[in-house]
Write a structure and sequence with these properties.
Elements lengths: L1 H18 L2 E6 L4 E5 L2 H5 L11 H10 L3 H7 L6 E7 L5 E9 L5 E8 L1 H43 L3 H15 L4 E7 L5 E7 L3 H6 L7 H9 L3 E3 L10 H7 L3 E9 L2 E10 L7 H38 L27 E8 L2 E9 L3 H21 L3 H12 L9 E9 L4 E7 L4 E4 L5 E4 L17 E4 L5 E3 L3 H4 L2 E2 L2 E2 L1 H11 L5 H12 L6
Antiparallel strand pairs: 1-2, 1-5, 3-4, 4-5, 6-7, 6-10, 8-9, 9-10, 11-12, 12-13, 13-14, 14-17, 15-16, 15-18, 19-20
Length: 526
């Protein structure tokens, strides 16, 4: 027995030394028969005090060094257990494993390994990994927000009117800041806040969503130009129940839309639960409002320029056509879709017993093109009142325009002088698309012998052409916006204009013009 115990102790000491662990040996009766290894270092127990004790006393001594849960596990039956971690009362961690040894399981060995440093390192590593994952997640979210804001800014910048920008801002706010309801309010000329775009609100609430100057928190946000977040309307006595009550709003976020040095209005997101909005939401909504302000500034400039250009454009179009015995006259003007204003112009006026018809097109859009168009029209009309020959009129017009029009500008003009009594017309074209002269037998003559556009060459001499113009004949003149229109992706061209005209000949002049336009079915107007 002594020899066997000696060998067992030797094996235990060797195992303990290799593993850096403490080994406790029990016999089958529950008596501690040996301790090996750094017992005091691992468990803080004097091995002499427990060797020879039976299970209850020995187990109690061991359990006293561990916390309550670990102690209960150690007092369990003397059988194999899977490795488990036990906590000591002084804050260390010990890995414990119990195994039967010897033939027929004559003894049981407890192995204790101090894993405090290892577990703490693992815990620190896990903490660092969690922090790194959190930082990475925040960066991913930040990049995602920046991309989403960039797309939202581009979308708002592509809109042309304030109404379109308001609707786009509302849609982007709801997409980027989760909310139940949202609204965009604009300051009117009196300083009152009025809803211009809403989502989620009842119609009767929208009708009441009017805030007088400096009234309520919305008025304060606009007056001070600062965002305001309300976490719970129930705890803020400043908040009126007029809107939040019927809509069951518990929290909201107001952000001003600052346009230059003044506030344009505000964008508001609302939730039916308290504390729905945080600093991140305030940042995102603030960036949206900033981009919206830039787009609104551009829209104001566009609307101002459009108003000036449209005023000029209206002055260039003949509102009331003269009454000429023996002639039926009609005009139709349609600007290109999305164009500010066009460079097209026309005029009809009597010249003695004859009538002059002027049709032209100045390249470009907007105020500059409209100004050039006005100069061309009124110059041509003044010259035609003092000259009887259409070629002489355009020759002098070309001389006057030379050096007065911007480089690269193109001015096409068609001047037709009709003598109804003499059943003739004379015409001159300065690079203009050919007018069509249709006889009573449905024969079509294209007035297609153009000289260069006006202002292109200083010494151009424009030719005068004469055609018969008998009762029942039709003269159809147009600008290139008609021939260059597209239908199903294919350009309509001059042959298409000819076919549409022939299909519409039975109609009076005003209806004929509308019918030709409808036959083209312009899908990409120019």
């Amino acid at each position: 027995l002594d020899a066997r115990l000696g060998r067992a102790r030797a094996v235990g000491e060797a195992l303990a030394a290799c593993a850096g662990s403490a080994l406790n040996e029990w016999d089958r009766s529950g008596r501690v028969i040996g301790w090996h290894g750094p017992v005091e270092a691992v468990l803080g127990i004097d091995p002499v005090s427990v060797v020879g004790r039976r299970g209850t006393l020995a187990g109690s001594a061991l359990a006293a060094r561990l916390d309550d849960v670990a102690g209960d596990r150690l007092r369990g039956p003397l059988r194999d257990t899977a490795p488990e971690h036990l906590a000591t009362r002084d804050g260390r961690e010990v890995r414990h494993e119990r195994r039967e040894i010897g033939a027929g399981g004559t003894a049981v060995v407890d192995v204790f390994v101090d894993v405090t440093r290892e577990r703490r390192a693992q815990s620190e590593s896990a903490r660092l990994a969690a922090e790194k994952a959190e930082l990475h997640g925040r960066e991913v979210r930040r990049v995602g927000e920046e991309v989403a804001l960039s797309r939202a800014a581009h979308a708002m910048a592509s809109e042309m009117t304030r109404a379109e920008i308001h609707e786009r801002l509302l849609a982007e706010a709801r997409r980027l800041v989760p909310c139940d309801k949202a609204a965009v309010l604009e300051l009117d000329g009196r300083g009152d806040l009025l809803p211009v775009a809403t989502a989620g609100f009842a119609e009767h609430t929208v009708r009441r969503m009017i805030f007088r100057a400096c009234e309520g928190l919305a008025g304060i946000v606009v007056a001070e130009g600062r965002a305001f977040t309300c976490d719970d309307v129930e705890g803020d006595p400043r908040i009126s129940r007029r809107i939040v009550g019927p809509e069951r709003i518990r929290s909201f976020l107001h952000v001003p839309i600052v346009l230059g040095e003044r506030v344009h209005g505000l964008v508001s997101v609302n939730s039916e639960r308290p504390g729905a909005f945080d600093d991140r939401d305030a940042h995102v909504l603030g960036e949206l409002a900033r981009h919206a302000a830039t787009a609104l500034g551009n829209a104001r400039e566009y609307e101002r320029e459009r108003h000036v250009a449209e005023t000029l454009q209206r002055s260039l179009l003949a509102d009331d056509l003269p009454r000429i015995p023996g002639l039926e006259l009609a005009t139709l003007y349609r600007p290109s879709e999305g164009a500010l204003v066009g460079g097209d112009f026309y005029a009809v006026w009597p010249v003695g017993t004859r009538v002059a018809v002027l049709l032209g097109d100045v390249s470009g859009k907007g105020v500059e093109a409209a100004g050039l168009t006005a100069m061309v029209r009124y110059m041509a009309e003044a010259l035609a009142r003092s000259m009887s020959d259409s070629g002489d009129v355009l020759t002098e017009l070309n001389r006057l325009l030379w050096g007065r029009i911007p480089d690269g500008a193109i001015v096409t003009v068609l001047l037709v002088v009709i003598d109804a009594n003499g059943s003739t017309l004379q015409w001159t074209s300065a690079g203009h698309p050919p007018a069509l002269l249709v006889g009573t037998a449905r024969t079509v003559t294209a007035l297609d012998d153009p000289d260069p556009p006006c202002g292109a060459f200083p010494t151009t001499r424009y030719a005068t052409h004469v055609e018969s113009f008998s009762p029942g004949d039709v003269l159809f003149a147009y600008t290139d916006g008609l021939s260059e229109a597209r239908r199903s992706g294919t350009q309509f061209d001059e042959d298409g204009v000819r076919r549409a005209l022939l299909e519409s000949l039975s109609r009076p002049p005003a209806e004929l013009a509308r019918q030709v336009l409808s036959l083209i079915h312009i899908s990409e107007p120019t």
